[in-house]
Amino acid sequence: MKKKLSAAVIGLSMVASMGAGAYAASNLTPIKAYLNSGLSFKVNGKPFQLRDGNGGTLAPITYNNTTYLPIRSVSDALGVAVHVDNKGLIQLGETVDGISIATGFNGDFHTKDPSKTVYDGKDYKEVYLNNSSGTRGASFMLYPKKKYQKLYIQIAAIGKDIKEFAVQDSDTDIELKTTPIAMSDGLVTVEVDIGGSDALYVRAEASDGGSVFIPLTTSYFK
To answer: Residue 25: enclosing H or E segment and its boundaries?
Structure first.
């Protein structure tokens, strides 16, 4: 049902309130349209207010007996990622090409030290390696900024099993994925649906004597 709803509403929403820079400006055609403030909306039975990227209230536009909704608001309501490139291409859902989480990664235990970036004979060049002592939470932040639908993150437990690996929406505190990672699993890829998420809190519950190994170059948003 949600996919059908997404298709129907997005089909109605292809005129977006979000621009694509100079490219969009050079292809604009003037029209006479009307702001239709008489419409109200519900998503899955709950009232929903159309808003722009800064949180301001928006109204739908009616033109030639067709109503157009801002695509950013619709994507937020349905949890569908929307990404606009500088050529005016709007991508809904997963992007064609994955974007490595190494891009812009900032956090403790981020290393490019060749003595620490190798796992099972392969050098991943850039990794998150939490090899501290004691039972602890190993964590960092990621910022998809609502541009991506999926996160494919690789992780391996070294020395001891990881009791719990979790990815949480930082704004809503909703856990999007929770799973244990055993040493015997090797390097595993965890797929997480992150549509609509602006910031993610990634954590692993590590035991004393165990390390958390996450290759950043082969983990990606899509």
So the answer is: helix 21-25
